[in-house]
Design brief:
The complex is a heterodimer of chains A (409) and B (80). Chain A is built from 15 helices and 13 strands. Chain A is an alpha/beta fold. Chain A has two domains: 154 residues, Rossmann fold (3-Layer(aba) Sandwich); 200 residues, 3-Layer(aba) Sandwich (Rossmann fold), CATH 3.40.50. In chain A, the strands form three sheets. Chain A has a six-stranded mixed β-sheet with strand order 4-5-13-10-11-12, with helices on both faces. The longest helix of chain A is centred in the middle third of the chain and has 15 residues. Chain A starts with a strand and ends with a helix. With 80 residues, chain B is an alpha+beta fold. Chain B has two helices and four strands, in the order E-H-E-E-H-E. A four-stranded antiparallel β-sheet of chain B has the order 2-3-1-4, with helices on one face. Chain B is globular, with a radius of gyration of 12 Å. Classes of the chains: A alpha/beta (409), B alpha+beta (80).
Chain lengths: 409, 80
Amino acid sequence: MPHVKCLQCRECKSEYPIGPLNACEFCFGPLEVSYDYDSVAKSVSRKSIESGPNTMWRYHDFLPVDKESAVDISTGFTPLIHAKNLGRQIGLDHLYIKNDSVNPTFSFKDRPVSVTTTKALEFEFEVLACVSTGNLMGSVAAHGAKAGMETMVFYPADLEQGKILGAAVYGPTMVAVEGTYDQANRFCSELADAHRWAFVNINMRPYYAEGSKTLGYEVAEQLGWKAPDHCVVPGASGELHTKIWKGLEEFEGIGLIDKAKTKMHLAQAEGCAPIVEAFESGNNQVKPVRPKTIAKSLAIGNPAAGPYSLEVLRDTGGTGVFAYENSIIDGIRLLAETEGIFTETAGGVVISSLKRLVKQGKIKKDEVTVAFVTGNGLKTLEAMGDFVAPIETKPDLDIFQTKLSNRKD
Amino acid sequence: MMTKRVKFTFPQELIKEPVIYKLGVDFGIVTNIRRADIRDDMGWVVLELEGEGDVVDEGLEWVISTGVRVDPIAGDIIEG
């Protein structure tokens, strides 16, 4: 990690040496990795990146770990698809889907977890841990297995069996935490203080967050080394939104792309939209909410990066938009029926919100727009409900033809 | 001594309540405010609490019972 300078507080700007630390000792503000960009610029070019591996590690110069020690399960460099069919339906000529649901554990979480696991080994942690209700636990369990680390996965005791299996298969220690969401949240925070474990999104959060920047780099490279006019990003903690923008800013800062004029839109679900509500009311404060949404991967009522996501919205001219709960499944089906991509509920939020942004005139027909699809639909089958109405036929050609004709009528 | 770092979020109707003062007086907890933002309609305070034995947990239970939201300073850490 030759280009890393230090950890810096996002609030009071105090600096700290690189270590497993996530909060400023003075103001308790969150810490972020700070880089020597002059040094990055000297060692990186479009050519050097293009000759790298077809994974997120082609951008290793922008990450706070050494590439030689990367815990890599082939994450990243996922497809950027020109979504002509969907674009035609909603009125956009240059709509792209960044399909991050094809990562090894089927969500974008492999990006931050890959960086964090690498860093955890560097800090000589023996235990990798997380508390999660879905995508994150699968990714942590997989990376823990790859790294040969003992892995602890904590989850609320009432979690669906399918999600538990998606992590358990990798062999971690699974811990079901009883009590309310808030109790589980506080308990796991205390655990991180009590044990010397690498909790990926607690004490390792500064490194974890950096992995998401690679989505911004990839989009710019895949568009021919330029930033899009619009990004539509799903919002949970708000960190993904801020880091995609940080990725574009870093590319611009060292001259890999021209000035990024991207409007960074944030999409949340109606039942959990604290950042969007603050944006709409003009507040700088994000008022915590009790999540009540089918988009469980976005159900963070007290988002850690909420204020920073608000800053990005305002600095870039983006819009905070929510998807109505009853439109989320419609968004999933629209993407599947037009582009052949089956996304989870967070993707449904993005597609539904994208439609609203176009309808509101925030995105124009000829503008280059990237919608981020961050998880696979097979992860949230329970949310899809019962919409399948098959033709039921005996194995008889005449009967089938009659039923098919009736259906078409 | 037990030490905890937490964030209190006050709903509008509790902004004028001396919750932090009472933690000190009624529970004997040492409160150390590091960052705060109080507005007309809501407010939050990030602070460190220090006390003997279980008093910090007891104090936090009381704070929650008043209607003030108590979170770890890192916010919601249970991710999807």
